[in-house]
């Protein structure tokens, strides 16, 4: 039997807040400048970047682009690019970001129940995640020390699907993975949590079309998600499917 669930760990981008399209819109121009500087003729729109790299941070994206197009960015220059992209994205998020429909109501209900501790586990930089939570009126539920970033919290930066950030969050929270439930919207995010031994609720409500939502539901179930959530109103039922004792639900 699964141990009692004590912690709920949320991805941020397109799980709590509708940020992915805005973020990729902001970073497409910089990515194209980098490709041009490397004499690569291909160019990306924000939508194309999102298809290829959803769930990864900009550092992970640059590593993949270097591998795909066979060029190398010196480490110091890569860090400058990462900082530039972070500034561009935060500016865009502060202007246009909104929460995912229904997410704030569930966060409020969870906080009022007092039955779980909550954290955010993201590939995005800590500063970007905090800016998103503040803009979406969610920061009250997630103090900065409960926001964990694969890009900036770890001794060695990485990105999902590496499970390192989930294992790091569990260690800092004093919560064995089996006592946690993760909420993820992407293949890389779900893979990260599954590899860490954390049951996953796959949220697909942020995908734009029914066809894409169904496609992602199947993909995330195939990865190992315990439940699929099309709407935040389904959260309590999904908690039960993920192994949370129904009597513990909010």
TrEMBL record:
InterPro entries: CbbY-like, HAD-like_sf, HAD-SF_hydro_IA, HAD_sf, PGP-like_dom2
Superkingdom, taxonomy of origin: Eukaryota
Stored NCBIfam families: HAD-SF-IA-v3
Name of this protein: Haloacid dehalogenase-like hydrolase family protein
Source organism of this protein record: Lentinula lateritia
